Amino acid sequence: MDWSIEQPVAAEWYSASAGGHEEQPGTTGVALRQLLIAVGEPLVDVLAAPGGFDVAVHDVVILDPEEAPGTGAGDLVLVIGTRGRSAVPLVRRVARSGAAAVAVKVDADQDARALREAAIGGGIALLGVRPDVRWEQLESFARSAVENARLTGEADVGETLGDLFSLAQTVAALTEGIVSIEDTANRVLAYSRSDDEVDELRRLSILGRRGPESYLAMLRAWGIYQRLRGGEEVVRIEPRPDLGIRRRMAVGIHAGAQPLGTIWVQEGARGLSEHSDRSLIGAARVAALQLIRQRSESTMAPRFRENLLTGLLESRIDGYSAAANIGADPRKSAVVVVLTLRPREHTGVSNRSEIELERAEMTSLISVHAASYRRSALVTTIGSRVYVLLPDLPERHAESAVSGLAQEIVTAARGQLRSGVQAGIGSVVATLDDVPVSRIEADRILDALGHDHTAEVATIDDVRSRVLLSEVLTMLRDNERVRDPRLATLRAHDADNGTEFARSLLCYLEFFGDVRSASLSLHVHPNTLRHRVRRAAEISGVDLDDPAERLSVQLQLLLFRQTEPRPRS
Prior knowledge:
This protein has 569 residues and is α+β, with helices and mostly antiparallel strands. The chain has helices spanning 32-39, 88-96, 109-122, 135-151, 157-161, 164-175, 200-208, 213-221, 224-230, 276-313, 319-326, 352-373, 398-416, 435-449, 460-478, 485-497, 501-510, 515-522, 526-540, 547-563; strands spanning 4-6, 30-31, 44-48, 56-57, 59-63, 75-79, 101-105, 125-129, 177-183, 188-191, 234-237, 248-255, 258-267, 335-341, 378-382, 385-390, 421-425, 457-458. Helices cover 48% and strands 16% of the residues. The chain is elongated, with a radius of gyration of 32 Å.
């Protein structure tokens, strides 16, 4: 097979109405928002953005504390060689230089608070870098984002580029060929209209929205895709009359070193034009910008807003920094509602894929209802829980309105999902800065509901005693030194001898010493229960006549019951 690889010429884009021109690097920076979308959540956390997320980043600078500052306006400064609280003086110095943002490695919450205060005071965005992130990796991603922004610096991309179908039609006019644009999975994203007769390959690709696998396998075997992924070179593919395939040319679409897709041009009746190669190279660059923008707008940008909400819920970013991008007034009251599927053993759903599907359906249902209640509502998922932030609340009757929304959601879920939903409503807080307080309370309420499978919606007033009990048990669980070792001795005796003294003692205490009611609950004779309680006191040595000791024993036996594995039903 005779393959002809055309070497790329100077990068020029010829529009239909004007001659080509050499692209010149612009001085336009990338908005901090777009840079964060490009870099991605796993690398950095936004800790402060006092100037908002539209500030422009023009360059990426590495700052070593041992060297002179060397930073200027519009820089993203990566502070290496120091981390945490010790970087506070550098953050202040960088802020005075007019830099747009500073990135520091952060290990502890206390360090994050000190750095955030310095950044807000200096009016500079602060990015917290995860401890395990390599600086060279972060620098590479950030520089790529800045360089990609320069490609679009001379024009408004949204107005100039149009959509992919318009681009395909323009390329067809310039090359006098028949055009299709595919992604990296060989799915057809757009194609040109044509009066020419198309070959079998194009017909099958358009009908199936993807090239036939037999032909794709040949292209892979011939190394065509490897060449297209390798850089900006136009690849010519000779005709295969035996397969009903005409001559083609193609160019890869790239964002830096990352492949995004391919533009294919089938030769028409008149043959391909003289400037087809140059037009294809320019078209590939334009297509890259369109695909990046589509990806950002359709998936990554919304996820960026969700990440901001997560940062707000977890106290990693202040309310004022997040407000503009979540569309809220930071000075108005807000509330957090947290929802989750009811415990699995009571739903009949056990397959992992079923559970994931249920969670996805639950999140979608919650998002629709929240948006209908408040345009500025935001929804995000953390673990198995879905959090709803409702900002800009009215001054009156906010609590009843939010309770009504939560009840509306769980009622809808009861009809649409197999599992059903439980909701915990945090208290209304005065400003966005107080949102973490509402979130913590909502989580505690939902924790309390976890032991009541009939409950659906609750506020702190509904479950205050259960929340208090849950908090006390959490303290006991996390502080082994305050536990009474005598009760561990009692449980060890039960385990070694097959007795149920600890369980019987807890039931006796829960019924306030009412032997008859407790024995009915345990399905034993009252005398049997009296014997077990007496033996439990003898083995452990606890004084059941002391009210404080009775309370302590009951709490610790409750903790043991919570941590024991539940028997399978």
